[in-house]
Amino acid sequence: MPTVYVNDRPVEVGTGKLNCIQAAEKAGVFVPSYCWHEALTVVASCRMCLVEVGERKPDGTVVMQPKVVPGCQTPVRDGTVVVTGEYAKRSGADAPLAYPADYTKVAEPGDRAKRAQADTLEGLLINHPLDCPVCDKAGECKLQDYSYKYGRSESRMVDEKNQPPNKPGLSSKITLFTDRCIMCTRCVRFTREITGTGELAVMGRGHHEEIDTFPGRPLENKLAGNVVDLCPVGALGSKDFLYKQRVWYLKESAGVCSRCATGCSVQVDTNKDIVYRLRSRENPEAQGHFICDEGRYGYHFVNSGERFVRPMAKADGRFKPATWGQLTPVLKKEVTDAVTVNAKGFAAVLSPFLTVEEAFLFATFFKGLSKDVRLVLGPVPVVGADDTYPKDVRGNPVEPVKFTIRAEKCPNRKGVEAVLRHFQGAVVPFADVAGDGLAAMWFAGGYPDKDQLEAALPGGWTAPPLLVAQDLFANVVTASAKYVLPATAAFEKEGTFVNHAFLAQPFARAVKPPVEVRPELQLAFDLLGRRGLVQAAAVRAEAAKAVPLLAPLGLDVPGNGVRLAVKA
Amino acid sequence: MGALTDDIREKIKGLIPLYPRKQAVTLPALHLVHDEMRTVSNEAVAEIADLLDLHPSEVADTMTFYAFFKGEGEKLGKTRLWVCRGLACMLRGAYELIEHCEGKLGVHCGQTTPDGAVTLEFAECIGACDGAPACLKEDVHVMNVTPERADELIAELKLKS
Amino acid sequence: MATYEPVLLARIGKPGSASLEGYRADGGYATAERAVKDLKPEQVTAQVKDSGLRGRGGAGFPTGLKWTFLPKDHPGPVYLCINADESEPCTYNNRILMEKDPHQVLEGILLACFAVKSKKAFFYIRYEYGDAYRALRNAVDELYAAGLLGKNIFGTDFELDVVLHRGAGAYICGEETGLIESLEGKRAWPRIKPPFPAVVGAFRKPTLVNNVETLACVTQIVKMGNDWFKSLGVPPDPKNPRDAGSYGPKLYTLAGHVNEPKCVELPMGVTLRDLVEVHGGGVWKGRKAKAVNPGGLSMGYVDVLAPLKGEDGKTEYDIPLDFNGPGKVGCLGLGTAAVTVVDDATSMVDVLHNTCQFFAHESCGQCTPCREGTGWMLKITDRLRRGQGKREDLDILVEVADRIGIMPGTTICGLADGAGWPVKTAIRKFRGEFEAAIRDGSRSRYAKSLAMAGH
Question: What is the pTM assigned to this prediction?
Fold first, then answer.
């Protein structure tokens, strides 16, 4: 195995191509950087990741390069010696390498890199406004963090700083605080290499250069929001999030985006049970490094005042609020009676927004009433065609595809289908039962976009006499229901989604649902008469045991999810 | 489409076969437009980009790097007169010459005289150090520019307009 | 000193020196014809390599060795880029060659392309050289008309196209990968190396980048032979195994406070003193030289009066202008061998401000240390010349100058080294003058009227 020595620690690096930053990470040593990003081309221009490198020969002698090199641009191979600016803070558990005397005579190992990094930071702050108190990035700013950790404590710059004007018109959703920019060019490379839409460019030269768009061509592509995540400093700000929260108040949870079948791993930033921001949570198994704006800004429905927030029953043609205490026994009776009268005329609709666990328990309940109850896959919203990136200059897709926004606008069709197949051998699409003159229907929805749901409903659909509809927003289904139950959003529950490629990703609850909203899993527990703590993990284990396709979910699932084995 | 004349468009297209990639025609195309129109408007940038299968921002990225081309809203006068401020010229009176020209023309560097005759610029070393202080009239060196020679030159340029 | 008969400049000043007819009358293109017809490409490369020719663009890298870095038997295309972006302040030797004797350069291009099997040469010429561009345009057109460019050159299967490509005023285009990026239509941000252009160059193909004077030397080397070339200049220092010597003639340009600012061709190794005092006619206005920039702005400053260590009675003024000479007195190197004289009536504060102004204007802005460092150094020197210097400024300037560049490893290209060298050499060698200026709060006579032009 190729071995690299990072601050004296030998670490096996495998056969993949790694740079010094990555090799150091394997050895548990962090090398700070700005311009380098795994998904973008290497430009080696910020000069924050400067390290010292050399080679350890088989006989143990070490040859060191006299100057620092950018870690991002320097590949490692067997015997590479990497010394970082943090060398002096190494654990000391590893035997020191035999650094040549002429090398240590000039400076101790690590001192060159440490000095060079501090110099880079001093350079980056030369024209930086140091307006951290009013900067939204404060608290998660790499310039702030690294200056604190690796920089000088005071500025020696006494001259007037360059003050380029801010660019609020950069994009409808993004603003540029030009003076805070450190010219890492990640955002420019993103629009050239990932989206191919090329809205951003560097304009000008030298210390007067700026990031900008071409007049009349603002940064408006469906992945644009990623540049805010990519920006290591407070230059690019999301207008959606700007000045809403200080980031240190935010709680992070690991979520899965529910807005399309890609099922991007996201980080949900919340405070006091309000979702403030979604960011990409890197997951090579799911989407890679980025997320689309539909998902990024697609969380607002959860905070919407239009949501159903308590159960309601129709009386005299009007919906009246009800309590769960009153309603649960009534629902159970109505459903049981309907199945007793006409099991074949009863459809339980499980939407592709349900989690695997919810679908499994609902199916268990309804099939428990009678095997003749029909389990139906809820309407699957589809908008247009899959939208792949990058694009060429004319907007045509280019291979290799780096990101796909899927036409299927739901997170868990594959998961719900797995449950449906298990319980009744086949998936019955909603359209198949729509015209069947059903007697009763339980509609477990959870559609965040009412228009997408209604577009997915078969034309001329009419509600059966008894309809229990659970959803987030009023729509044509809930309008015809006898009982309307509030649904939860994906942020408000834990569970598992299975994406288009059969990647099953469990996710955590980010916020509590509104007080009178009872999560679907709890409701299923109530209907089944189960007692005890409602835990998605326990239900997941149960489903994994019962459904062979879901078997991998019975074990410890890695953070990036687990791919279900699908027969070709 | 209308900023570029058919003639310029044809000239730009004619350059494409000289290079392995269309993007390489960016600078020659910008020069063609700039020479003829004395500016490169945003519309012209977009049309160049279209001819070369580029995003307008890519052309603008290149164009602004060189600080040579006048963009939207700026237009060169009839003659562009650069005064070199490189070390060799500075040592032989370039700063005085710039001041002299500014006074004579009534404009600062980067500006055009109201009659549109002359756009005055400073230049970094123009490689005419054997004739310092030197000027560049469009792309032609004018050597050993004393204040008197500058006056003659300016008078000549004013007359030309 | 025996009078040296110029070779590279032999035809300068002759009537019709720029025309094909005139060039052929002087035996032009016979060398290329003989090489293309009688020699193998490898033989031409070997001869250039054995001649000891080192690049005239500034870095002094052995030319023939560079040619051999191109991959063997590459399916092509392979490109030659001619670096005529001559923008190093006080340098104009290439301009003279291109304006007055373009065919000497073009013959070198033919030879180089034959040697490296390139069918396409991109001649990147800075925009400010309008006359040179037109002379070349005319010369290239003449060659096509005469069948010396295009297909079947000299009736052989050798073919070559030369494309003239004009820059747009950016110093960094003289850096070979900056030149390539600019040629490709992008901002001239130098590339990270490796890969070097010889492997992945223009349009991702193997590319050789050579300077104009270098190519003129190639013409003369193939024409007159290595014995001639090696009879001129300075052989390698026997005490330095890495020294490749400084053979051949060199075009030195004189500028600044010298009586006769001109381009002179001399064997490598003329002393700075001889060049200025003899060939340049001495310092103007009867003054004395104080500082000299020995090879273009980037190389730093020589203190004319500072004693030369170990050389009794000699000063820094007596260094030889070969590839090693300027380095001996703390300068970056020979550079472009463009010599600029600063007389004793001139303030080094103004000289340094001018220097910093140039590099801040020309830093491409890619690497943090250079982008911010050159800008900072300009702001500090601007304050110095306004009489508002602080005691700590000089140390900061030297520190910043020391830490930016490819030599400490903090930038992608050498521009920052060139920006730092004049700063640190000026302050180290003329510290007293700077300190006095700070102490007295003296204001530059230029500070009143010229607003700092950062752009």
Answer: 0.96
